[in-house]
Amino acid sequence: MSLNRCEQRVFDYLQRHQDERHYWQEKFQKILRDAGDERLAVDFVEPQLWRYYLERSAVVAAFKAAAANEGLARTSMKNLAELLLRLWTEPRPKRKTADLPHP
Questions:
Q1: Helical spans, DSSP H, in the chain
Q2: Residue 90, CA distances (Å) to 28, 30, 49, 52, 87 in order
Q3: Residue 24, phi-psi category: left (phi > 0), alpha (psi -120 to 50), beta (remainder)
Q4: pLDDT (tens digit, 9 = 90+) per residue, 31-61?
Q5: What is the pTM of this model?
């Protein structure tokens, strides 16, 4: 999976900051439990990750520097949301499709 620069920055930051990572891990697990569907969970958490990026851009040096150089135009966090969902939640069993009768 390929992450854009903003997504990679958040991912790297979460890998280095255990408290932040644990917060987001619990958040992802709760969102998936509540949503019951991976697509809904990704759609729900993606804008939250962008808001987190904006918040970090005001206080963390690496984010501040990136914001100064790249700006803060809205960037998708969907790939990051999908990756973190896979890494931090239990795999869901695939739905079994009914066997279709053969013609």
A1: 5-16, 18-35, 38-57, 61-70, 78-88
A2: 11, 12, 20, 24, 8
A3: alpha
A4: 988 988 899 999 999 999 999 999 999 999 9
A5: 0.84
